[in-house]
Each structure stands twice: as structure tokens, then as C-alpha cells.
Specification:
The structure holds 2 protein chains of 2 kinds. By secondary structure, chain A is mainly α. Helix content of chain A is 72%, strand content 6%. A two-stranded antiparallel sheet of chain A has the order 1-2. In chain A, strands 3-8 form a two-stranded antiparallel sheet. In chain A, strands 4-7 form a two-stranded antiparallel ribbon. Chain B is mainly α. Helix content of chain B is 82%, strand content 1%. Chain B contains 18 helices and 2 strands. Chain B has a two-stranded antiparallel ribbon. In chain B, helix 4 packs across helix 5. Chain B starts with a helix and ends in a 6-residue tail after the last helix. Classes of the chains: A mainly alpha, B mainly alpha. Chains A and B meet through helix 2, helix 3 and helix 14 of A and helix 4, helix 5, helix 6 and helix 17 of B. The structure holds CIS-heme D hydroxychlorin gamma-spirolactone and protoporphyrin IX containing FE (2 copies). One protoporphyrin IX containing FE (HEM) binds next to helix 1, helix 4 and helix 12 of chain A.
Chain lengths: 433, 359
């Protein structure tokens, strides 16, 4: 394994680990606050039990999110020092704002978790709101950094260095809006549906129905709208990618030739050596319509750039198909829930629907991982699209495979423990009132 | 001295705020690590009560305290990207080890607090938490010590800046990635950082304890730790004298050295006196002042260098617009942050521990 590959793998594993906790950190506080608010409004003790249960899980997940996020901020220097030397001054501002969002999040989470008996009812609820808002803000800020890496603006190039930099313009790069929107929806959809799936499963097993039906309702309230909106937001993303990163779009779709009226490919395997995509179901004109909303729009193919400027197409294509497939399934189940509610039926008693919710429970997190593979691997060989190559960003430190293996092992162990702890927290709810 | 003040500009202001954040991290986050040290060393009939106090004092605040470190890192790469890159390259190994310590400390702490009660697993997590609390400050001190010696800057200068030249001209691995920090002086500073954090924690815990006997336990711990601080600081001086004469030279000749050294000595004596005479809140303030003065002493003696021997604050600074925007972000963030922090600490302050009923 080359050092570059080891560094990329370590970064990918660290980010892939962190994003799960980050999504939960964005959405879970909102659900906690909704449960507590229902309790304060109705006096129904099941809601209080629910808020406390969710808070217990959130405390563990937040801590793991915080430490894995810390690793990431150092890794920018440990693995990609030349990228940071090059771009630190232009992307640092959103990171600094994010730092303050972390502060608010951590402070008010402390108040929320340990302050049930120390602060007033109102202050407690407000602390929860502050956690939910700052979690969302921190995710927004960090994604604007990534959007800049995809569509860099706000600088001039002088002798290979950035000059006349404008950090505010950089935060408003062309990809920023769609990426932030898509990421926020992803967090609420993935977490909401996953939590709903757990409680649906408990209801199917007949455990503590009063508790779990309330939990299901709140989780669906957060997850369902986001899951329905996500394909629409994904469509916006795809169109921005088509305009700003044509090579990435071509690799999402396995499009080798530049052509008018390009087809949409479902499934299939892009063969990089022969430069064709085989075994795909092709919908004529589909890609031109989706990417440009025009029957015969021209779509640039991978062959329009030299081989050295293309990402690993099969990885990107398969990841994209995975995200879209899982996202569509989630959206369908979410629509089913919406229709059921609209018809004034009780979701908690519809067994087939509960089974469907339990099945799609992990889909959002898998789709998120796939989506980030699309975004990051699809940008290769660039770390900053078109201006800095990943190979030029990596540290000169040799034998990077060693730290990569260490951190991988650490995350595997942590992940296993978190799963075990969460399972035991869920098990305890079999007998709550 | 006046010339220094006259030369202050935006880069120095940002560097000063960064130093303040590091200071806050040492006083708050450092004490949380020190708490872990006393968890590891908990002894005697009140062992469990000692651990419970450590745990209760850390639990609501450690994550907020930890963010100070993030702020330092973020400010460093925003305002001084060259310095961040240099540290990331040369100190890859100790920084990675420190990160593993940070991850294990935080994770083990919540796993212990929220795992099934009284189990063997819980005491295993306790051990991981406590061990990581010892190792992490050691590494943090080693990193600071290595920067101060100038070896980090020297090592960075050996690395060819042009990629093409890299494979051919890469210097010896150990010279660049190991010896700059695995030297006597950084190790001595590592030991001193550990002693200082343990000392802070013991003083804070003596202040926070309600139970008289528990208080005496931490008073004894604080006095022992004060002794350890003295011994490690003295070792650091002797080691500097023999292995990094440029540091001891600066320590002796810098205009800032004498005022800082005397003020530190006064704070140290005041803290010991307060501990001996059981004046808990004075002890707390004096111990915090002592740590603060040590840190700022380092900063002033090193000024205007960010990474000795040659990278200055000005030389590493980002363009002016970045610094201005960063200052705005810090100002706006600070307006939100400081009242919130005060609220957090007041909510969980020692005065209210007495009436505590844990939820
Ligand atoms: C719950 C998770 C989830 C779901 C259901 C979907 N996505 Fe997604 N997608 C993500 C989670 C995600 C993400 C959060 O992982 C990414 C990575 C970067 C980003 O901005 O969002 C992403 C990126 C991403 C990109 C690349 C953006 C870029 O590189 O700038 C495109 C084109 C799409 N998505 C399109 C879609 C479509 C058409 C979907 C239809 C169902 C879809 N996504 C569902
Ligand atoms: C799109 C990707 C990301 C999202 C949505 C995200 C979001 C979040 C959120 C919501 C938290 C709060 C902690 C939690 O809820 O567990 C968090 C923590 C953290 N994240 Fe991320 N993050 C992302 C990527 C990154 C990256 C790339 C970095 C660093 C370069 C980073 C650095 C951090 C740090 C330092 C923390 C800890 C803050 C604390 O101590 O409270 N994150 N992140
Ligand atoms: C948390 C969600 C994210 C995930 C899961 C993710 C995933 C990945 C993956 C898979 C890679 C490796 C790509 C490859 O080498 O083929 C990567 C690289 C990288 N990502 Fe992300 N990413 C995320 C968010 C971010 C954000 C918000 C930033 C910006 C701060 C960022 C910065 C980087 C950098 C600097 C690299 C290394 C250079 C490169 O490979 O282009 N990532 N990420």
C-alpha cells in the first residue's frame, strides 16, 4: 500500500466513522427536545421516560462524535499538511465558526444531561433547543468547507499559491447550498428513520407499547419529511454537479462518451480498461433530462479528460447507485407512513408498515456513507477540484500504513462497544411503563 | 519591553488569543486529565468516594472544556497555516499517540458512566480512562517541549519542499520524525505537564469536596503533586542547561524571564501556603495563576517565534483579511460563549454539589 493510499484510507475511515455520530448529534437532540416538550405539555410520564432514555444514548454517542471529530481536525495536518498550508487561510473561517458551535453544543448538552434537577423546566428545554440548533450549525459550517473543495472560488492563483483570498466568498461556493441542504436532510432522515425502525421492531415484538408508540411518532415526525424531500434535494445536487464537476457526474453515471441525449444507467459495471459501462439498464435520454432538464442536452463523458484526471469510476458509480437505491426505498416507506397518517390510521398497529420501517432502518446511514464516497472519491485525483492534487497534499511522513491500521483498529473496537451499549439501552426499554 | 508592545499587530493579537485558549484548555481540560490521574491513584478507605468525586466533577463539563483544544487547533491552521503544516509533519507520531489518548479517555469515561453498573467491564473502563488520562498530558507536554527546543523547526527545514525531490532526498526517518521530540528536554516538560495537571485537579477537588475527610485526601494529594511539580520543573531546568543551552540562555537573558519567574514563584508559594492553612479558594486561584504564568512565561520567552528557531508569528501569518475575519468570528463567538460558560460552571459549581440529588 502506498503512503498516499494509506492516508486516503485513514481519512476515509475516520470521516466515515465520524459522520454516523455527527448525523445522530444533529437529529437526536431535536427528538429529545420534542419528547420533553410533549411531556411538559401533557404531563404524560411516558414522554419523560423517553426523553431520558434518548438522552442517555445521546450522551454516549455525542462523546464518541466529539473525540472522533477531534481526531479529524488533527488529521488535516497529520495527513494533508500541504493542503492545509495551501488552503488553511481560506477555509479556516467556517471551521472557526464551527468551533464555537461545538462549544455551545457541548455546554448545553452538559446542562441538559446533568441539569434535570438543577435548572428550571424552561431553561432545561431551552438548553435542549440550543444543542439541537448548534449541532445543525456545526454540520452546516463544515459542509461549506467541503463544498469549497468541490467548487473552489474566492481566490486568484499566483505561482501555484492562493492569492487575494476571500474567505466569505469561499463559504458561498456553488456547491455550498445544495450540499448543506442535502446533508441536513440526510441527518434527519437517517437518524429519524433508524430510531423509528428500532421502536417499530420493539412494537412488533409487543414490548411496552405505550412507550414505543410515542417514540415511533416523534422519530417519524423527524425522519419522514426529510426522507421524502431527500430525492428532490438529490436532484438539485446532481444538477449542480453536472454544471460544476462534469467529470464527477460522468463517473456517477458511468458515462464514457460525450453525447447528446445521454441515457440514465441503472446498475451496471463501468469497465475502466475498455472504457465502457456494461450490464446497465439504460433509460434513453434519462441522464440529459435529470441533469439538465432537457431531452437532448449534451453530457460530457469521461473520455473528455486524460486518464490521470479520472476518479476510480466503478467505486463512484456503485456508491451512487447504492445511495439512490436506498434513498428511493426510504422515500417510498416514508410516503407510505405519510399516507397512513393522512388517512388517520394508527401507524403503530399496521404490522406490514412496521416491518417496512424496521427494514429500512439502517438505509439512511448506509446511503450517507455511499453519498460521501460519491462526493470525495468522485473528486479524485483532486483534493481541491482543478487546483490541487491529493498526491501533492499528502504528508512526506513514510509508513503511513501503521497509523492507518492503528486508527482503524481503534474505530472497530469503539464501534463494537457502542453497538453493544446501544443494544443494552434498547433492551432495557422492554419493560418500561 | 516597550518595543515589544509597540510592535504588536493583528498577527500578535491572534496569537495572543490562541495562547489564551491554550491557557483555558490547560486550566480546565488539563484539570480533567488530572482528575483521571487521581482516579488511577485512588487509595485507602475512601477510594471509591474519591473516584466518585472525580467522576461527578468531570462529567457535566469535560466536553465543553475539551473544545478549547479544538479552538487552538482551528485558530492555528486558519491564522498560521505554515506552522500547522510543520507541526503536523514533524510531530506526526506524538500527535497521533496523543489523539489515541484523547479518544480512549473520552470514550472510556462515558462507557464507564453509562455502562451496566458495578460490572467488571466498568472497572476495566475505569482503568482505560485513568491510564489515558496519564499518557495524554505527557504527550502534550512532550509536544510543547519539542517545539520550544527548536528541533521541530530544524527537522522541518531538512524536508525538501518540492515533491519531485522528495523520494531522492528524504533525510533519515529518525532524524526528522523521532529525535525532535524523543529528547530529554521534551520528556522533562511532559513530566512537568502531567504533574501540573494532577496538581490543578487535586486543588480543585479539595475545593469541591464537601466531606471533610475527602477534602483532606485531596489536600494531601495536592501537596504531593506540588512537590512533583517542583521536582519536574527543576529537572527541566537542569536538562535544558545541559542539552538545550539556547533555551536556558533565553530563560536567563530574556527581559521577560525575571518578572515571570518571580511571579510564578510567588504564586507557587501562595498556593502551598493556602493548602497548608486550608484556604481552599485561595489555593485554587493561586494554583491556576501558577500554571498560567508558566505558560505565558514560555510564550514571552519564545516571542516573536512561533516555531523556533526561525518561523515567526508574522512569518507564518495568513493574509490580513483572514485574520480580520477570524477576529470577528472570535468576537462574536466570544459574546455567545463566555456567558454560556459562566452559566455552565455556575449550574454545576461546588456550592451546589451539597444539595445534589443525582438524576
Ligand atoms: C440519508 C442519506 C441520503 C439519501 C437518502 C440520499 N443521499 Fe445523496 N448524499 C448524501 C446522503 C443521501 C450525503 C450526505 O452523504 C452526500 C455526500 C455529500 C453531500 O452533500 O451529501 C450525498 C451526495 C450526493 C450527491 C453528490 C453531491 C456532490 O458531490 O456535490 C448527489 C448527486 C446526490 N447525493 C444525489 C442523491 C439522489 C439523486 C438521491 C435520491 C434518492 C440521494 N442523493 C439520496
Ligand atoms: C459533513 C461532515 C461532518 C458533519 C456533518 C459534522 C458534524 C458534527 C457534529 C454535529 C458534531 C457534534 C458532536 C456530535 O454530535 O457527536 C461534530 C463534532 C466534531 N466534529 Fe464533525 N462533522 C463533520 C465532519 C467533520 C470534519 C471534516 C471535521 C474536522 C476537520 C470535524 C470536526 C469535529 C470536531 C473537532 C468535533 C468535536 C466537537 C466537540 O468536542 O464537541 N467534523 N461534528
Ligand atoms: C463526514 C463526512 C465525510 C465523509 C464520509 C468523507 C469521506 C471521504 C473519503 C471516502 C475520502 C477518501 C477519498 C479518496 O481518497 O478516494 C475523503 C477524503 C478527504 N476528505 Fe472527505 N468526507 C467527509 C467530509 C469531509 C469534509 C466536510 C471535509 C472538509 C473539511 C473533508 C475533507 C477531506 C480531505 C481533505 C480528504 C483527503 C484528500 C482527498 O482524498 O481528496 N471531507 N473523505
Amino acid at each position: 500500500m502506498t503512503d498516499l493510499l494509506a492516508a486516503r484510507t485513514q481519512m476515509a475511515i475516520s470521516l466515515g466513522f465520524h459522520i454516523v455520530f455527527a448525523e445522530i448529534g444533529v437529529a437526536m437532540p431535536l427528538m429529545m427536545v420534542l419528547a420533553e416538550w410533549r411531556w411538559r405539555r401533557t404531563g404524560d410520564a411516558a414522554y419523560l421516560a423517553l426523553a431520558k432514555r434518548w438522552a442517555k444514548g445521546t450522551a454516549i454517542l455525542f462523546a464518541v462524535g466529539a473525540v472522533s471529530g477531534t481526531v479529524l481536525s488533527f488529521e488535516l495536518g497529520l495527513l494533508w499538511p500541504e493542503f492545509m498550508r495551501f488552503a488553511g487561510a481560506i477555509i479556516g473561517l467556517p471551521f472557526s465558526l464551527e468551533g464555537f458551535a461545538f462549544f455551545m453544543e457541548a455546554i448545553f448538552l452538559g446542562v441538559y444531561l446533568y441539569g434535570w434537577n438543577r435548572v428550571s423546566a424552561r431553561a432545561h428545554l431551552l438548553a435542549g433547543v440550543a444543542v439541537a440548533v448548534s449541532g445543525a450549525a456545526s454540520a452546516m459550517f463544515v459542509v461549506t468547507v467541503n463544498a469549497w473543495m468541490n467548487t473552489p472560488v474566492g481566490y486568484q492563483l499566483a505561482a501555484g499559491r492562493l492569492a487575494a483570498i476571500d474567505p466569505i466568498a469561499a463559504m458561498q461556493s456553488p456547491a455550498a447550498f445544495q450540499q448543506v441542504l442535502h446533508m441536513m436532510l440526510a441527518a434527519y432522515a437517517a437518524t429519524g428513520i433508524a430510531v423509528a425502525g428500532v421502536h417499530a421492531w420493539m412494537l412488533l415484538r409487543g414490548a411496552a407499547p405505550d412507550f414505543h408508540r410515542r417514540a415511533l411518532a416523534i422519530a417519524l415526525l423527524v425522519g419522514v419529511p426529510a426522507a421524502i424531500l431527500q430525492p428532490l434535494s438529490g436532484d438539485i445536487s446532481a444538477r449542480v454537479v453536472a454544471q460544476t464537476q462534469p467529470v464527477k457526474l460522468a463517473s456517477l453515471e458511468g458515462q464514457w462518451e460525450t453525447e447528446r441525449g445521454a441515457p440514465l444507467r441503472i446498475g451496471g459495471w463501468p469497465d475502466a480498461s475498455r472504457e465502457v459501462t456494461r450490464f446497465a439498464v439504460e433509460i434513453p435520454h434519462g441522464l440529459s433530462i435529470l441533469a439538465y432538464h432537457e431531452l437532448n442536452a449534451e453530457v460530457k463523458g469521461l473520455k473528455s479528460v486524460p486518464k490521470g484526471d479520472r476518479p476510480p469510476v466503478p467505486v463512484v458509480h456503485v456508491a451512487f447507485q447504492t445511495m439512490v437505491g436506498l434513498g428511493s426505498a426510504m422515500a417510498l416507506v416514508a410516503l407510505w407512513v405519510a399516507i397512513t397518517v393522512f388517512r388517520r390510521k394508527d401507524v403503530a398497529t399496521q404490522r406490514p408498515l412496521l416491518i417496512a420501517i424496521a427494514i429500512v432502518a439502517p438505509f439512511g446511514f448506509v446511503a450517507t456513507e455511499a453519498g460521501w464516497i460519491v462526493t470525495e472519491v468522485g473528486r479524485q485525483p483532486w483534493v481541491v477540484q482543478g487546483i490541487m492534487r491529493t498526491a501533492d497534499a499528502v504528508t512526506p511522513m513514510p509508513v503511513l500504513v501503521v497509523p492507518m491500521l492503528f486508527f482503524t483498529l481503534l474505530y472497530v473496537v469503539l464501534g463494537a462497544i457502542v453497538v453493544a451499549l446501544m443494544t443494552s439501552i434498547v433492551r432495557e426499554t422492554e419493560h418500561v411503563a | 519591553m516597550m518595543s515589544v508592545i509597540a510592535s504588536l499587530g493583528l498577527p500578535e493579537l491572534i496569537a495572543g488569543i490562541m495562547m489564551l485558549s491554550l491557557n483555558a484548555y490547560a486550566l480546565m481540560g488539563g484539570a480533567d486529565f488530572g482528575g483521571g490521574v487521581w482516579d488511577l491513584l485512588a487509595r485507602g478507605p475512601r477510594r471509591d468516594a474519591q473516584r466518585a468525586l472525580v467522576s461527578a466533577s468531570i462529567a457535566p463539563i469535560w466536553e465543553a472544556n475539551h473544545v478549547w483544544l479544538i479552538i487552538v487547533v482551528v485558530m492555528l491552521f486558519t491564522a498560521f497555516p505554515d506552522a500547522f503544516a510543520t507541526l503536523g509533519i514533524v510531530l506526526h507520531i506524538p500527535l497521533s499517540l496523543m489523539l489515541i489518548g484523547i479518544v480512549l479517555r473520552g470514550a472510556a469515561f462515558v462507557f464507564r458512566s453509562y455502562g451496566s453498573r458495578g460490572s467488571a467491564a466498568q472497572s476495566r473502563w475505569g482503568l482505560v480512562f485513568a491510564t489515558a488520562s496519564v499518557v495524554t498530558p505527557l504527550l502534550l507536554g512532550i509536544i510543547v517541549g519539542a517545539i520550544a527546543t527548536g528541533s521541530v523547526g530544524d527537522a522541518a527545514a531538512q524536508i525538501p519542499r518540492h515533491r519531485g525531490a522528495l523520494d531522492a532526498a528524504m533525510p533519515n526517518f529518525a532524524d526528522v520524525f523521532i529525535t525532535p521530540w524523543l529528547e530529554p528536554f521534551p520528556l522533562a516538560i511532559g513530566a512537568m505537564a502531567l504533574a501540573l495537571f494532577a496538581y490543578l485537579a487535586a486543588v480543585y477537588l479539595a475545593y469541591a469536596a464537601r466531606d471533610a475527610e475527602l477534602r483532606e485526601d485531596f489536600r494531601r494529594n495536592a501537596l504531593i503533586a506540588a512537590g512533583a511539580v517542583f521536582v519536574t520543573a527543576l529537572t527541566g531546568l537542569v536538562v535544558a542547561e545541559t542539552t538545550v543551552p539556547q533555551i536556558s540562555h533565553r530563560l536567563m537573558t530574556s527581559a521577560w524571564a525575571l518578572p515571570f519567574q518571580s511571579a510564578t514563584a510567588i504564586a507557587a508559594i501562595a498556593a502551598i501556603w493556602a493548602l497548608v492553612t486550608r484556604r481552599w479558594s485561595i489555593a485554587r486561584v493561586a494554583a491556576a495563576a501558577q500554571v498560567t504564568l508558566i505558560l505565558w512565561g514560555w510564550a514571552f520567552v519564545q516571542y516573536p517565534l512561533l516555531i523556533p528557531p526561525s518561523l515567526t508569528i508574522r512569518g507564518a501569518a495568513a493574509p490580513r483579511l483572514t485574520l480580520e475575519l477570524l477576529l470577528w468570528a472570535l468576537a462574536i463567538g466570544g459574546v455567545l460563549l463566555l456567558p454560556s460558560l459562566v452559566y455552565l460552571f455556575r449550574t454545576f459549581s461546588a456550592e451546589r454539589h451539597a444539595s445534589d440529588t443525582r438524576s
